[in-house]
Amino acid sequence: MKHKVILVLLDGLNYEVARHALGHLHAYCAAGRAALYRLECELPALSRPLYECIMTGVAPIDSGVVHNDVVRLSRERSIFHYARDAGLTTAAAAYHWVSELYNRSPWLAARDRYTHDEQLPIQHGCFYWDDAYPDSHLLMDGEWLRSQYDPDFLLIHPMGVDDAGHQFGLDSRQYRNQARRMDSLLADLLPQWLAEGYQVVITSDHGMNNDLSHGGTLTEERTVPLWLFGDAFVEHWPDGVVIAQTQLCALMADLLGVPHDKPVAPPLLKAAFMREVH
Q1: What DSSP string runs through 162-180?
Q2: Residue 99 covered by a domain
Q3: How far apart are CA 129 and CA 257, in angstroms?
Q4: What is the pLDDT of residues 226-273, one digit of tens each?
Q5: Cβ–Cβ contacts within 10 Å for residue 75, how many?
Q6: Cis amide leading into 44 (omega within 30)
Q7: Beta-carbon neighbour count of residue 241 at 10 Å?
Q8: What is the pTM of this model?
Q9: CA end-to-end span of the chain, whole Å?
């Protein structure tokens, strides 16, 4: 069975802060209507390499996108490619590095900020380049794309939590409060998404440390949340099952019902929604 999917990538959100600061999302978990899992990001714990990892299922050491200054198109097939090639519609409200990885590189604001081209992997896009671009605006960019183009796969990628971490550090009220603000913003949108039948995946690329940075092996830099919302997911996490960041691409492809050759995701979908991986 095919589902529409929204991936919310909360840049720079550490797992422990996510676990205590996003009360609305946890209300779904407490009610048995969602689940939160702890995920360990791949290395290095940097944004552009991990965008590539999440979207393609390929670890940075293998993709060659090993730091944030690798400016080129991805050499891998991403979830955007799989969806487009299956005749589905794709969209993204995201940081401009995502456009550089999957649409055009280098990114030119005047050309690429607003993208509408059915031949591109990301067919409809609203991209930003200022790390301080308000999360409230970014979520409305995503909601506008959803309402105008009815995408089967939509990426929504706000930067506010990461920006606060780089300014004030992990153990700061500013970082925690930015996470709380994101929770409130999602509270305005999530009920409608679920009511319309979307499967919603909310995660982060990496965490944060007290040096106002990330990129290494510290637990606080590597552990990130993974929330799963929607009726396609199993109600209880299977015993002994651990999901890797490299398996998120396959999970989303399985939700969309599109063929792929990515690392197989754990059995997190109900049997009625499972399909063989090609």
Answers
A1: HHHHHHH-SSSHHHHHHHH
A2: yes
A3: 32
A4: 999 999 999 887 777 889 999 999 999 999 999 999 988 888 998 755
A5: 12
A6: yes
A7: 12
A8: 0.97
A9: 16
| Tally of domains within the chain | 1
For residue range 112-132, list pLDDT tens digits in order: 999 999 999 999 999 999 999
In order, the DSSP letters of 215-265 are: -SS-HHHHEEEEEEESTTB-SSPPTT----GGGHHHHHHHHHT----SPPP
**Phi, psi for 227 (deg, rounded to 5):** -100, 140
> What's 224's domain CATH number?
3.40.720.10
For residue 224, list its beta bridge partners. Answer: 39
Which contacts of 47-53 are long-range, i.e. CB under 8 A and separated by 24 or more positions?
47/11, 47/12, 47/95, 47/97, 47/162, 47/205, 47/206, 48/97, 48/101, 50/205, 50/206, 50/245, 51/9, 51/97, 51/98, 51/101, 51/205, 52/76, 52/101, 53/245, 53/246
Q: Is 278 part of a structural domain of the chain?
A: no
Domain carrying residue 134: 5-273
Strand ranges for 2-89 from DSSP E: 5-9, 34-40
The answer to whether 251 and 79 are in contact (CB under 8 A) is no
Token look-up 């990538």 returns 9
